[in-house]
Amino acid sequence: MSLVIGVTGGIGSGKTAVTDYFATLGIAIVDADQAARVVVEPGQPALEKIAHRYKGILQEEDGSLNRRKLRDIIFASDSERVWLEQLLHPLIREQIMTELKASVSPYSILVSPLMIETDQHLLADRVLVVDVPVELQIARTISRDNMTEEQTRSILARQATREERREKADDIVDNSQSLEQLYPQLDKLHQHYLKLAKQR
C-alpha cells in the first residue's frame, strides 16, 4: 500500500478545498464520509439494521437513509450515537482499507473529519491538519450548510479542539485566507510527500 496522508480538520475548515487540489495533482482521495455513505446504501446490511431500529428512517421515494432524521436522533441521544458508531465504524474502516489498497497514485490521501477522534489516524502514515480559527469555522459552516450557530457549536463540541488537532499533526496548513494563499502550501507538501513515498 502506498504512503497514506491523513487529512483532517474541524467542520468548515476547508478540507474539500485541500483534497480537491491534491486530486488535480493526480493523487487518489479516499473520503471517510463517502465510505460512510457507501456502507448505508440501499441493500447494505447496515441500512437494514438501522431501519429495523428506527421506524420511518428511510426515504419513501427510494428507500435510502433519511440522514437529517438520523442526525437528529443521534444528536439527541448519546446512547443511540454509540450504538450507531459501533455498527458503522468497523464497516467504514473496511471500506476505507479497500479503497486505499486500490490506489495507484504515488501516495494516497485519506480525508476524515473525525480522524483524531476515532482510530482512523492509525490508517495514516502522517496527519495533515487543515487549520482555521474557530470563529471562522462557525461562520463558514453557517453560510455553507444553512445551520444555526447553536447546531454548529454542538458539532464542534463533539470534535477534537483546534489545539488537540494541532498537537497530533505532522503537517499543518493555514486555510484562513484565500485559495491563492492555500495552494503554495499544498504544492510544497506535495513535493515533500513524493519524496517520502520514494523512500518507502
Automatic annotation (TrEMBL):
Q: What is this protein called?
A: Dephospho-CoA kinase
Q: Which Pfam families match?
A: CoaE
Give the EC number(s) under which this enzyme is classified: 2.7.1.24
In its UniProt entry, the species of origin is given as: Endozoicomonas gorgoniicola
Query: Per UniProt, what is one GO molecular function of this protein?
Result: dephospho-CoA kinase activity
Similarity section: Belongs to the CoaE family.
Known function = Catalyzes the phosphorylation of the 3'-hydroxyl group of dephosphocoenzyme A to form coenzyme A.
* NCBIfam families, alphabetized: dephospho-CoA kinase (TIGR00152)
